[in-house]
Amino acid sequence: MDLLNTLVDKGLRRELPTREEALAVLATSDDELLDVVAAAGKVRRQWFGRRVKLNYLVNLKSGLCPEDCSYCSQRLGSKAEILKYTWLKPDDASKAAAAGVAGGAKRVCLVASGRGPTDKDVDRVSETISAIKDQNEGVEVCACLGLLSDGQAERLRTAGADAYNHNLNTSEATYGDICTTHDFSDRVSTVQQAQAAGMSACSGLIAGMGESDADLVDVVFALRELDPDSVPVNFLIPFEGTPLAKEWNLTPQRALRILAMVRFVCPDVEVRLAGGREVHLRSMQPLALHLVNSIFLGDYLTSEGQAGKDDLAMIADAGFEVEGTDTTTLPEHRTDAEPRTEAEHGVDGAAQPAAEAPAATVAAPPADETRRDLVAVRRRGAGTDLPPNA
């Protein structure tokens, strides 16, 4: 298939595909799916071998958010029956993180609901970072606290934060459809602040919210332009009690095509299989390891994930290995922090948006075939008296 040969060649050279090529990946048929996975897998192995980085989420503050992001169970007005609690104490957060590290996690992601942290919140998180690093040698810490104010990124970096996560989620053109309390440019600005402070940027997307193929390509190209080190790919978890509860638009095949497209556009970046993988990929999760080089271990913020031991067994059974703390995740050319050349970005790096391109229509599964039983609200770990899943 000429398209796939071209995309592999470009991926091995770190050259950006055209938007038309990215759209074509999403438009491939189920009969071509294994060819697509195999092609993207060549690019993944070129830059990351067969290593899988494990990340572990600790929800420092759950629910009670003033923002109205339609996809989120913690949003303003959410009726989802999730855990709600205010800030964990640093020692409690450190104990939760230790469970993930013991399970093999190399990075701990500290997340708090809300528009953004106050200066007092930054102090609190700084104490938590110190506690985690004191008790877990070699662990990376990523903070995800919402929109940052002046100076907060620098303070987090000084406190020991290695990375900052703030996802773009969807295309700029459709961002107003999922959130009205902040806009796309606010998210871009926060990612740039984190980068300017010397933190590794982590920024990704959510698929399955009713977006078009063009929207998916637009947000992934926007991410490529921002050049984060990590790109988490989330698949919408349709929580009952949220505006998107009925958005069941994904099939395992569709999810794999999205992951392959992200890998072709971001060949040498840590592509992370994130929230919703169990719900939408289901038994096809092992195939996704040929596309991504990073996953979350265990549970997510407000939903339960696959058992940690099953994650580890899946990685081993698929012929991959867990990345150790003594290994640098990113290829050497990225850790050198050299500016990208025009050739590396590709001639189409600043091309016109793909919104005008025809988008493939993906029918949602019939209502009686959706797996609502796989959306399980988290009732263990942080904020509870039960041990975490790690």
Keyword list:
alpha/beta, 390 residues, ten-stranded parallel beta sheet, 12% strand, globular
Summarize this structure briefly.
The protein is α/β, with parallel strands linked by helices and 390 residues long. The chain is built from 15 helices and ten strands.
What does this protein structure show overall?
The structure is a single chain. The longest helix has 17 residues, at 119-135. The protein is α/β, with parallel strands linked by helices and 390 residues long. The termini are far apart. Strands 1, 2, 3, 4, 5, 6, 7, 8, 9 and 10 form a ten-stranded parallel β-sheet that branches. It is built from 15 helices and ten strands.
- Structural class, from helix and strand content? alpha/beta
Strand content: 5-15%
Oligomeric state of shown chains: single chain
Helical proportion, percent range: 25-40%
Cα-based radius of gyration, to the nearest Å: 19 Å
DSSP, total strands: 10
Number of helical stretches of at least 4 residues: 15
Model regions low in confidence, pLDDT < 50 over at least 5 residues:
338-368
Question: Largest sheet, if any?
Answer: 10 strands, parallel
What is the CA-CA span between the terminal residues?
41 Å
Whole-number mean pLDDT: 90
Q: Provide the succession of SSEs.
A: HHHEHEHEHEHHEEHEHEHHEHEHH
Which term fits the overall shape?
Answer: globular
Task: List the SSEs and their pairings.
Blueprint: H1 2-12, H2 19-26, H3 33-48, E1 51-61, H4 90-102, E2 107-112, H5 119-135, E3 140-144, H6 152-159, E4 163-165, H7 175-178, H8 184-196, E5 200-202, E6 205-207, H9 213-226, E7 230-235, H10 252-265, E8 270-273, H11 277-280, H12 285-288, E9 294-296, H13 308-317, E10 321-322, H14 332-335, H15 342-345
Parallel strand pairs: 1-2, 1-9, 1-10, 2-3, 3-4, 4-5, 6-7, 7-8, 8-9
